[in-house]
Amino acid sequence: MKCLVAVLVCVVLAEGLVKIPLHKHKSMREALREKGIELPYQDPALKYQPNEFAGSSSMYINNYADTTYFGAITIGTPPQSFQVLFDTGSANLWVDSIYCNTQACNTHKKFNPKQSSTFSGTHQSFYLPYGAGSLYGVFGYDTVNVGGIVINNQEVGLSTNEPGQNFVVAKFDGILGLSYPSISAGGETPVMDNMMSQNLLDANMFAFYLSRGGQQGSVLSFGGVDSSLYQGQIYWTPVTSQTYWQIGVQGFQINGQETGWCSQGCQSIVDTGTSMLTAPGQLLGYIMQAIGAQQNQYGMYMVDCSQVNYLPTLTFVISGVSFPLPPSAYIIQNGYNACSVGITPTYLPSRDGEPLWIFGDVFLREYYSVYDRTNNRVGFAAAA
């Protein structure tokens, strides 16, 4: 059900391997930073008491053109650094590896297990399909550092084949899934579950702040929330299916008028790995009509940029609380006087047959989102 279509369609620049000249006056961290690669900070004292100071961590993650949010993790000993898409809509951790020689792998950094003293291999293979793109790989175990939190014996997928073009232009070297273990390919234990079982967190939760307008400053926090990144209170709603981060939606309004489309219940998957807001396919035409959008020759829905401020506000009612999306949230400026609607259709219902929405980055830029594994609930607060 994973949807990475919008992420990968919008990324147009392929990047090759970066060779970094290391001068004696520059640290490796500085040299990498100049290339846009940020190593996660690790407290040097952690090697003496690796679990003593863990508990919570906030890490800056990259925003590429409001379509992809990714950041640095390290795998292995000594650490090898990779950019991974942090994805609440899937459960597996995988990275490009030296076992893969397709074009998608050859344009990215590859993990070399032979250079890690803590790596142990398995003979278990896997296949992972996404909405766009798929890969084959094998599982291994190694030490993983996410934002200074060190996880021992984390199962890692090493790609062996990435067919097609979808991952060729991706800005990331792999994906770190943050959903429930029940949807993990091969039964791999997700990173979050190992953080929990190894008692690495003060609270078994994580939270996202997604920056907008292509600006940097996005933050992923583990073990707690960052109160400087949201306003007012966090409103909680229960997870309805411990697969994806799936929640119930009781109402959908256009300019304050209830449509009745979710009066019998809708479901939504909260998904940082999908860049758009995704609506049930049978409702898309009505929504576009209300917005006054016209389809162009590429199938994209466009509006007149000068009219954006006059477009309707779309509001979701979740556990009795209204979450409005103003037009500035769902209209995407594509260049000079070209404005598209950041809403795409899905034709799949939820597992219980209710209409399915996907709250992708278009929604999540407006609302700081908190994912609580202890209480199996999702929290939203107005983003700062």
Molecular structure report:
With 384 residues, the protein is mainly beta. The protein folds into two domains: 218 residues, Cathepsin D, subunit A, domain 1, CATH 2.40.70.10; 157 residues, Acid Proteases (Cathepsin D, subunit A, domain 1), CATH 2.40.70.10. Helix content is 11%, strand content 40%. The chain has seven helices and 26 strands. The protein has a six-stranded mixed beta barrel. A four-stranded antiparallel β-sheet has the order 14-13-19-20. It has a four-stranded antiparallel β-sheet with strand order 17-18-22-21. Strand 11 and strand 12 form a beta hairpin. The longest helix is centred in the last third of the chain and has 11 residues. The chain is globular. It starts with a helix and ends with a strand.
Q: Secondary-structure map with pairings?
A:
Layout: H1 5-10, H2 28-34, E1 57-64, E2 68-75, E3 80-87, E4 93-95, H3 103-106, E5 120-129, E6 134-146, E7 149-161, E8 174-177, H4 191-197, E9 205-209, E10 218-222, E11 230-242, E12 245-249, E13 251-254, E14 257-258, E15 266-270, E16 277-280, H5 281-291, E17 294-295, E18 301-303, E19 314-318, E20 321-325, H6 327-330, E21 331-333, E22 339-341, E23 343-346, E24 356-359, H7 361-364, E25 367-372, E26 377-383
Parallel strand pairs: 3-8, 4-7, 15-24, 16-23
Antiparallel strand pairs: 1-2, 1-10, 2-3, 2-6, 4-8, 5-6, 6-7, 9-10, 9-25, 11-12, 11-26, 12-15, 13-14, 13-19, 16-24, 17-18, 18-22, 19-20, 21-22, 25-26
